[in-house]
Amino acid sequence: MPEFAFINLFQGLATLLAADTSVTVARLALIVLGIALVYLGARNILDPLLMIPMGFGMLSVNAAVLFLAGGQMGTIFIDPLASDPAQLMEVLQIDFLQPLYTFTFSNGLIACFIFLGIGVMTEIGYVLASPFSSMFIAICAELGTVATFPIAVAMGLNYSEAASIAMVGGADGPMVLYTSLMLAKDLFVPITIVAYLYLSLTYGGYPYLIKLLIPKRLRGIPMDLSKIPTVTPAEKIAFSVITCTVLSFLFPVAAPLFMSFFLGVTIREANLKHYIAFIEGPLLYGSTLFLGILLGVLCEANTIMNPKILILLVLGILALLLSGVGGIIGGYVLYLINKGKFNPVIGIAGVSCIPTTSKVAQKAVSEANPQALVLPYAIGANISGVITSAIITGIYITLIPVLK
Amino acid sequence: MMMTAKRLTCWITGTFIAFMGVYLVRALSLQVNDSYKLKVMLGGYALAILGLFVITMGTRRK
């Protein structure tokens, strides 16, 4: 009679005991982290739309490691590194999330879907209403995406990896996903996870940065909303069409992002109600749900354990911090140019984590002066931040392969 | 609302400037010497952004 090991009935536990100690510890830590993300998401401390599915994916994939054919350990969730067509065809029939990953995630489609959704929800009129201040703040708030690049290179990353992690400073998840997929495919899993984890922290962290850098007296400066001109839908559509064409000409590699965003803006302005309902509802929420699940299941210990992960964690938070500081510096410059009639808190909204940083700005202002309303200006800066982040993405994707 | 001549001028001028920038980046920079290539490209990007700014001026009304 063959020897029977009782523990092999429970393969999740058996693989835990059979693996290296470091992998075992990492799996257990990721399970705990997954549970923590679900809890923090459910309590609304972190973004629940992304964190709950991500936490579930993370805890499930690390608990569900089993012995596969040939004695290898793995899961039947996903194989992110499968690239050979024959191997991929086999994996597609076994791993239940592989079709979603291969056909929407690894080609950047899900990032474009989310950008389409952002476009549909975006009121581009706020940018056109105050283009100079909006774009100036957005450019200043790209400090993290620009300054982190040389720091990352100095810390030992190559140009592609440095550019990908620097994009975390743009605070735009789809953009980080897109850049890392295009430039640093080997590191895109940890970079994207670092990005989304940090982005969910902006809502909690940036208010402290605002309080640290801007005194209460300045946080309460009211903005003159009577100066905001009205822009007709026809003008917004014309602007979107021309801008999309120009940017696509300049940065063809990032054209899918530009097209998705400006198509969304145009659908909104053309008032195509059925499209708006579809994109705002099923498409955007579906994409966010599957993005969360896929990010979670990509956090399998063997995939994410990379010697560069610590560097990425440091650079990610540095990029976000620098962008926040850059935005606030931009706010201060406009405060000085406008002789004290511009609220520098709006600067934080240049960090394009739309609409989170706009809400953060308005909340900080309301705490200092309940009568002050800065949201229209903040949204303008926020949307400009999305556009400048997409431009920086285009610049990195275009120039890095030339620099190599 | 009828578009005033001033705003129409902004739209036409802005579009022209933006596409001039595109021409510099996508066409002219490929034809010049390597020493000028970067300058022409940067000039093109600046022109394209300037053009978009000029267009936004065309959306302003009192």
Question: Brief description of this entry?
Answer:
The complex is a heterodimer of chains A (404) and B (62). Chain A is an all-alpha fold.
What is the string of SSEs of chain B from the N terminus onward?
HH
The quaternary organization reads as: heterodimer
Total domain modules of chain A: 2
Report low-confidence residues of chain A grouped into runs of 5 or more: none
N- and C-termini, Cα separation of chain A: 61 Å
CA radius of gyration of chain A is: 22 Å
What's the domain count of chain B? Answer: 1
C-alpha geometry of chain B: elongated
Helix fraction of chain A, binned, reads: over 70%
- Major beta sheet summary of chain B: none
Please, what is the average pLDDT of chain B? 86
Strand content of chain A: under 5%
By DSSP, the count of extended strands of chain B is 0
Low-confidence stretches of chain B: none
Largest interface: A-B, 17 and 24 residues
Question: Which helices and strands occur, and which strands form pairs?
Answer:
The complex is a heterodimer of chains A (404) and B (62).
Chain A: H1 11-18, H2 21-42, H3 48-63, E1 66-67, E2 73-74, H4 85-94, H5 98-105, H6 109-121, H7 125-129, H8 131-140, H9 143-154, H10 159-166, H11 173-183, H12 188-199, H13 202-213, H14 216-219, H15 233-250, H16 255-269, H17 273-297, H18 301-304, H19 309-337, H20 356-368, H21 375-403
Antiparallel strand pairs in A: 1-2
Chain B: H1 5-31, H2 34-57
